[in-house]
Write a structure and sequence with these properties.
The complex is a heterodimer of chains A (about 120) and B (about 400). Chain A is an alpha/beta fold. Chain A is about 45% helix and about 25% strand. In chain A, strand 6, helix 4 and strand 7 form a beta-alpha-beta unit. In chain A, helix 1 crosses helix 5 and helix 2 runs parallel beside helix 3. The N and C termini of chain A lie close together (about 10 Å). Chain B is mainly α and about 400 residues long. In chain B, helix 3 packs antiparallel against helix 4. Chain B is flat and about 100 Å long. Classes of the chains: A alpha/beta (about 120), B mainly alpha (about 400).
C-alpha cells in the first residue's frame, strides 16, 4: 500500500484515478491546484505523485522542480497530460519525472505503472 | 444565437423602453399644454413626478433582473456541476464494479458525466464506456441532434461526438466535412479524426480509414479541414495519407496538407512521398515537401541533390522552403546554394538563406559574417548583417532578463 498525491484540476480524472488506485489498495490524496499540491507536498510525505502539467494556477513542472530541487526528494513522479508535444515530455523527464502518460489514458495502465514505481 | 434567459431579457428591455417612452411623451405633452396655458402648473408638475417615478421603476426592474439572472445562473451552474460530479462517481463505480449503470434514457447530467469520462479514458475501460454510450441511447440521441436544422445544436452534437469517439458515428460525420458552415466542417473533421485515432488497429479501422480518406478527397472539403483531420488522427494519419496518394490521386490541396502532416507528425515512414513530390509540377506540392523535410529535421540521401536544385526554383516560396531544408544537407553545394540565396531577388529567400547559414553552427556563422562584409550583392550583405545583429540581440536578451 502506498500513499499517492494526485494533482489534477479535472474532476473526472481525479474521481476515476482515485477509485482505481484505492481499489488497488493505495491511499490517495487529491489536489486540484498547484497551490494545494505544493501545500500537500510540504505537509506530508507521499510515495508517488501523479501530476497534470496544466493546472489552473500554474504548470505541473513547478511541482516537479519543488520536489527535486528544493525538497531534494526522489519520490517517483508520473506525469499525466493531454499535451502531445514531444517538448513537454522531454521537459518533464528532464526535470526528473519518472514516467509520462498521455491523456486519454487507460486507468489500469496508470495503476500498473504506479505499482511498478512504488513496488 | 439566443441563450437561456435572453428572450425574457429582450421582452423586459422592450417593456421598460415602452414605459419610458410613454412617460417622456406624457411629460412633453404636459409641458406643451402648460406652455399654451391649457393646464395648470400643478398638472405639469404631476406629470414630471410621474415620469421620474417611471424612470426609477424601469431602472430598478432592469437592475433586479440582471442581478437575479446572474445569481440564478451561478446557482444553476453549481447544481449542474454537482450532478455531473455525482454522475462521474456513478460511472466510475460502474467501471470498478461497485455500481450498476443508470438505466436509459439518461439525464443530461448522467450523459455529460459519461462523455467526460469517455473523453479521458482509453483501453478496456474506454471501450466499455463507448459501449455504454451506444447501449444507453446517447449515441442515437447525438446522431438525431446532428440532423437538427439549428447550427448550434449540430455543433453541440459534434463536440459531444468528438468526446465520445464512437465508430458508428463516422458515416454521419463524413457529409458534414463539406458543410456550408466553416465551424461545422472543422468540428466534423475533429470528431471523425478523434474517433479514428481511438479505434484499435483492426479490419474495422482499415475500412473506416478508407472511407474517411474518400470523404477527405471530396471536391468541397477545404484544405484546412484535411490538415486538421490528419493532425488529429494521430497514428491513423499514416494510413489516411497513403490513401490520399493512391491513384487516382486526391486534389492538390489535400495532398499538400498530407505532406505538411508528414512533417508535423514526424512520419518518417512516409518520407518517400516527400522525395517524389520534389519533382511535382505544382509548386505548392514542391514547397510542402521541402517544408516537411525542414520539420522532420532530415533530408533523405535520395532527395539531397533535388533540395539543392530547388534553391534555384523559379517560384519564390519554393526557394524559401528549399533554403530552410538545404540547411540540413551537409555538402559543399549547400554552402554555395545558401550564399546564392543571400543574393536572391526575394527578401524572404534572402532571409531564409541567412537564417539557414546561421543555423549551421560556428562554420555557418563565420560564413555569414564573411558574407556581411564581402557578398557581391548589396542586399545580400544587408541581410547577412541584419540576421547577425538580430542573433546578437537575442543572445543578449536572456542575459538582460
Amino acid at each position: 500500500m502506498a500513499r499517492i498525491l494526485l494533482v489534477d484540476d479535472d474532476p473526472s480524472v481525479t474521481t476515476m484515478l482515485c477509485a482505481f488506485l484505492r481499489a488497488a489498495g493505495h491511499v490517495v490524496d487529491v489536489a486540484h491546484t498547484l497551490r494545494d499540491g505544493r501545500r500537500s507536498t510540504e505537509d506530508a510525505l507521499h510515495d508517488a505523485y501523479v501530476l497534470d502539467l496544466n493546472l489552473p494556477d500554474g504548470r505541473g513542472f513547478d511541482l516537479i522542480r519543488l520536489l527535486r530541487e528544493d525538497l531534494k526528494r526522489d519520490t517517483p513522479v508520473l506525469v499525466l497530460s493531454g499535451q502531445k508535444q514531444e517538448a513537454s515530455v522531454l521537459e518533464a523527464l528532464g526535470l526528473g519525472a519518472d514516467d509520462f502518460v498521455r491523456k486519454p489514458f487507460s486507468p489500469r495502465e496508470v495503476v500498473a505503472r504506479i505499482g511498478r514505481m512504488v513496488g | 444565437m439566443w441563450r437561456r434567459g435572453d428572450i425574457a431579457y429582450a421582452v423586459l428591455v422592450l417593456g421598460t423602453l415602452l414605459v419610458e417612452t410613454a412617460a417622456l411623451f406624457g411629460l412633453s405633452l404636459a409641458f406643451i399644454l402648460r406652455r399654451a396655458s391649457l393646464v395648470s402648473g400643478w398638472r405639469a408638475f404631476d406629470a414630471l413626478v410621474l415620469a421620474t417615478g417611471a424612470t426609477a421603476l424601469v431602472l430598478v426592474v432592469l437592475a433586479s433582473y440582471v442581478l437575479a439572472y446572474h445569481h440564478a445562473s451561478e446557482l444553476l451552474a453549481r447544481r449542474t456541476a454537482a450532478r455531473v460530479a455525482d454522475g462521474i462517481a456513478r460511472w466510475t463505480g460502474v467501471l470498478v464494479g461497485t455500481d450498476s449503470p443508470p438505466a436509459a434514457p439518461l439525464s443530461r447530467a448522467a450523459r455529460d458525466a459519461l462523455l467526460a469520462l469517455r473523453e479521458i479514458t482509453d483501453g478496456a475501460e474506454g471501450d466499455r464506456l463507448a459501449r455504454l454510450i451506444v447501449d444507453r441511447g446517447v449515441a442515437n440521441a447525438l446522431l438525431r441532434q446532428l440532423r437538427s436544422r439549428r447550427v448550434t445544436r449540430q455543433l453541440e452534437a459534434l463536440e459531444a461526438l468528438a468526446r465520445a469517439r464512437i465508430p458508428c458515428a463516422l458515416p454521419h460525420l463524413y457529409p458534414l466535412l463539406a458543410a456550408r458552415d466553416h465551424v461545422t466542417r472543422m468540428l466534423a473533421a475533429r470528431a471523425a479524426a478523434h474517433t479514428l485515432a481511438a479505434m484499435p488497429r483492426d479490419g474495422e479501422r482499415v475500412t473506416a480509414s478508407r472511407e474517411f480518406a474518400r470523404a477527405l478527397r471530396g471536391p468541397d472539403v477545404a484544405p484546412g479541414v484535411v490538415a486538421e483531420a490528419l493532425l488529429l488522427s494521430e497514428d491513423g494519419a499514416a494510413d489516411l495519407i497513403r490513401q490520399l496518394w493512391e491513384r487516382p490521386r486526391a486534389r492538390r490541396a489535400p495532398l499538400a496538407a498530407s505532406l505538411d502532416a508528414i512533417g508535423r507528425l514526424k512520419l518518417l515512414d512516409l518520407v518517400a512521398l516527400c522525395v517524389d513530390s520534389l519533382a511535382e509540377e505544382d509548386p505548392e506540392l514542391r514547397a510542402a515537401a521541402l517544408r516537411a523535410f525542414a520539420r522532420l529535421g532530415h533530408v533523405p540521401a535520395a532527395a539531397r541533390a533535388a533540395v539543392v536544385v530547388a534553391c534555384g526554383d523559379p517560384v519564390a516560396f519554393v526557394r524559401v522552403q528549399a533554403a530552410r531544408a538545404v540547411a540540413l544537407v551537409d555538402t559543399p553545394a549547400t554552402r554555395d546554394a545558401l550564399l546564392a540565396g543571400l543574393g536572391d531577388r526575394s527578401w524572404w529567400v534572402r532571409l531564409a538563406a541567412a537564417q539557414a547559414l546561421l543555423a549551421r553552427g560556428a562554420q555557418g556563422a563565420a560564413l555569414l559574417r564573411l558574407a556581411a562584409a564581402a557578398h557581391p550583392d548589396r542586399y545580400g550583405r544587408d541581410m547577412a548583417r541584419q540576421v547577425l545583429a538580430d542573433a546578437a540581440m537575442q543572445r543578449r536578451a536572456p542575459r538582460a532578463a
